[in-house]
Design goal:
By secondary structure, the chain is mainly α. It has one domain: Tetracycline Repressor, domain 2 (Orthogonal Bundle). The protein contains 9 helices and no strands. α5 runs parallel beside α8.
Length: about 190
Amino acid sequence: MASAVATERLTAEERREQIIRETIPVFAERGYAGASTDEIARRVGISQPYLFRLFTTKRDLVLAAIRRCFEDTEAVFTRAAGDLTGEAALQAIGDAYVEMIRSDPVKLRAQLQAYAACDDDRVRALVADGFGRLVALVRRLSGIDAAAASQFFAEGMLLNVLAVMGQFDRPAPWAAELIDACITRGELPW
């Protein structure tokens, strides 16, 4: 079903942005192999041939969606840190990440699908680069060392797993303890 926006005349760049936005939920739900370019074209209200004029291959389209997810996460981290430094910046970044994965489960599922698609060399390279950029960004914004960054990202991955298991809304006691341990201020954020 095409949206009302799809009938508007858009520039190629505006249409590319629209296609990327619609690719993320399809990729999140179905993964790399299952994401249908036909479904994405229908959602946007364009023909599949036009989609392939803007993105030469399905892989290029999926790579653009993965890249956008990383860019969005970088923007969330940067906004959260603001003018903060050290532990305060790290706490703000962590809180913003928890809010992001709670409020936008589609992006979380897309992130996990990107990791699952790492058997493709180009996807793996993009995901490794994107994750490395996040690590560098967090280290730069907070000033933490490699050991602290390892702990921070390990806890983030644990939170990802708990979130996709539905443990954020009504956590089982064991999950609440793990979540609480990851949230350094000692209280659940909800």
